[in-house]
Specification:
There is one protein chain. α1 packs across α10 and α6 crosses α9. The chain is globular. The strands form 2 sheets. A 7-stranded parallel sheet has the order 3-2-1-4-5-6-13, sandwiched between helices. The protein has a 7-stranded mixed sheet with strand order 8-9-10-7-11-12-14. It has 2 domains: 162 residues, Rossmann fold; 167 residues, Dihydrodipicolinate Reductase, domain 2, CATH 3.30.360. By secondary structure, the protein is α/β, with parallel strands linked by helices. It comes from Pseudoramibacter alactolyticus ATCC 23263. This is Putative saccharopine dehydrogenase. InterPro entries: NAD(P)-bd_dom_sf, Sacchrp_dh_NADP-bd.
């Protein structure tokens, strides 16, 4: 089968190509680029993402197209509409409200969006942990990302954070110890459509979702006024360029869940470690592509990765693509882990 990849020369697109070439060498890849064409044995085609006819021409003959082009609010709807006209299944690493507004697909067509690291697999993990609970009282999600942000990724992050245009957000943070991330880190609470959807799905009584940084740079950045979200995205890119100098990439998730199992209190803490946000996003998107092509996706409406019904099978493909270097679940709280790390227990 032919798999088309839009934005193939970018960081996430490159990881998708690498993963599919290794894990599914029998599949043909059509790699759509705007610049930076490569010679790697795959089919490379120049595609103008601003021209819907060009997108449709690129999709012709594909069983599935994966979109990594962004920012999502600018391009996702164009790609989705082209896929609907062509009857091609679509995976979009980005997130856009256009998918939630679409209630019908062509026969046999599938669409998965928000199919990366954040949003994406970060919403999937609490569902996996929840399988061992009867009731969930609290959910604590910590996301630590260290990677050079592209302007596109920064725009998507600012949009997902639901910041008010031009206004200081008043984000505050204090130094904390978060096991497996750091002794003195800053947590910045955030919410987006995916975190709200997961809280509702799991009937969580209380939840907290945080971005974790090892400096207070977010507080300084978001406490200032700005002209619009584009300006904020540019500032965010500059911040990451400065903070990343001479440092290695990583993506870490630390998640704590408390509730009941068989009428007894239960607490677990999960730790996931990935090479970087773009590597995890690329491998997760590749995993979803393999699951879709193997007939594991039943939904006939656009659906978030985090909300897919066949979660056990999807996770099998995520494991096959080695999206994470480490995934451990511990039968105790983060507070107990902190005490253990400090030698108190």
């Amino acid at each position: 089968m032919m798999i088309g990849i839009i934005g193939a020369s970018g960081k996430i697109g490159s990881e998708i190509i690498k993963t599919l070439n290794v894990k599914a060498p029998q599949e043909q890849l059509r790699c759509g680029y705007h610049s930076n064409r490569r010679s790697d044995g795959n089919q490379w085609v120049c595609v103008d993402i601003d021209d819907r006819n060009d997108i449709k021409a690129f999709m012709e003959g594909c069983a599935l197209v994966i979109n990594t082009a962004g920012p999502s609010e600018r391009y996702s709807q164009k790609v989705m509409e082209a896929a609907l006209e062509c009857g091609v299944s679509l995976i979009d690493v980005g997130h856009s409200r256009c998918y939630a507004k679409t209630t019908r697909l062509n026969k046999g067509q599938r669409m998965i969006y928000a199919c990366g690291a954040v949003p994406g697999i970060i919403g999937f993990i609490p569902r996996k942990l929840a399988e061992d609970f009867d009731h969930i009282y609290s959910l604590n999600v910590n996301i630590a990302l260290r990677e050079m942000l592209t302007l596109t990724a920064a725009r998507d992050l600012v949009t997902a954070s639901q910041l008010p245009d031009g206004k200081a957000s008043g984000i505050k943070a204090k130094t904390e110890n978060i096991p497996l991330i750091g002794d003195e880190v800053y947590r910045y609470q955030f919410s987006d459509e995916e975190s709200a959807a997961i809280d509702t799905l799991l009937h969580v009584r209380s939840s907290s979702w945080y971005m974790v940084r090892d400096t207070d740079d977010y507080e300084k950045l978001f406490s200032s006024t700005y002209k619009d979200k584009d300006e904020m995205a540019e500032r965010l890119c500059r911040l990451y360029r400065i903070s990343m100098a001479g440092r290695e990439d990583y993506l870490k998730f630390v998640i704590e869940m408390e509730g009941m199992k068989d009428n007894r209190p239960k607490t677990v803490s999960a730790y996931l470690n990935g090479i970087s946000g773009s590597v995890v996003s690329g491998r997760v998107a590749a995993a979803a592509a393999l699951a879709l092509l193997r007939g594991e996706i039943a939904e006939n409406v656009p659906v978030r990765l985090a909300m897919l019904q066949n979660d056990e099978k999807i996770w099998e493909y995520v494991e096959k693509t080695e999206a994470f270097r480490l995934f451990e679940v511990y039968p105790y709280s983060l507070a107990a882990m902190s005490e253990e790390e400090s030698g108190e227990i």
